[in-house]
Amino acid sequence: MAFETHEQNGVVxxxxxxxxxPHAFSTRLGGxxxxxxxxLNLRPGMGDGEAALRENYRRFCACAGxxxxxxxxxxxxxxxTVRLCTSGDAGKGLDRERDYTxxxxxxxxxxxxxxxxxxxxxxxxxxxxxxxxxxxxxxGWRGCAGGILEKAVQAMGRSCGARPENLRAAVGPCIGRCxxxxxxxxxxxxxxxxxxxxxxxxxxxGPKYHVDLAGLNRAWLLRSGLLPEHIDVCGLCTACRPDLFxxxxxxxxxxxVHAAVISVRQA
Length: 267
Prior knowledge:
This protein is α+β, with helices and mostly antiparallel strands. The chain has one domain (3-262): CNF1/YfiH-like putative cysteine hydrolases, CATH 3.60.140. 22% of the residues lie in helices and 24% in strands. The chain has six helices and 15 strands. The chain has helices at residues 50-64, 141-145, 148-160, 185-194, 213-223, 248-251, and strands at 3-8, 11-16, 23-26, 72-73, 82-84, 104-107, 114-118, 122-127, 134-139, 168-171, 181-182, 202-205, 208-211, 231-233, 258-262. The strands form three sheets. A six-stranded mixed sheet has the order 1-2-3-15-7-4, with helices on one face. A six-stranded mixed sheet has the order 5-6-9-8-10-14. Strand 8 and strand 9 (134-139) form a beta hairpin. The longest helix has 15 residues, at 50-64. The protein is globular. The relative contact order is 0.19.
């Protein structure tokens, strides 16, 4: 298993060989948005305008092999709500208002692609090859400490019949331990949530901590019952690679936002 980088008609995106369903993790490359959103911004309301946003989605969805007109977008508030999406949600976020807040989306319905966003935070795509169910989760440090991944795995079990030991997970690009420098509040939240399991991912450097967010999210997946060989971690740091990614930590608000999208494979 491994993450692979692709280029299609100028759009650069990543996929995981662990997920045999339509999916993709975007980079900042290949869209039409002007600076400072240059160029493949995929989050509504960033300031680059509706026309640019829709063209960016047209290009990205073509690469991912999903139906842009059926997309369901998360509405992220750094909490731990996981929404079961149905056909009634199709188009929410691009063509219709989102009447919910949710940092995690799951579904077992065909042709209902799910999208979650990031510009440093963790984004995780889930797939159950037995039931076909899929999920997308935004897990920044607050969501990680709140156990959103465990809640998503449990929700996929309750609503879709997915068993944790069958689930596959791809942990996308996020800020790495190299660049995620914090005070003690983040490590304390992780220790409260994960206990000793958090320690390998927290490193003291002088008066600050450096935090391995991808490692912590992987720890949650293992705690939730996923098998180690069913978890693929990208390993790219969004803050280290401004050529490929935006970083809230490094760029502030003058930037675009990436998306990760996944859909149930059609029969």
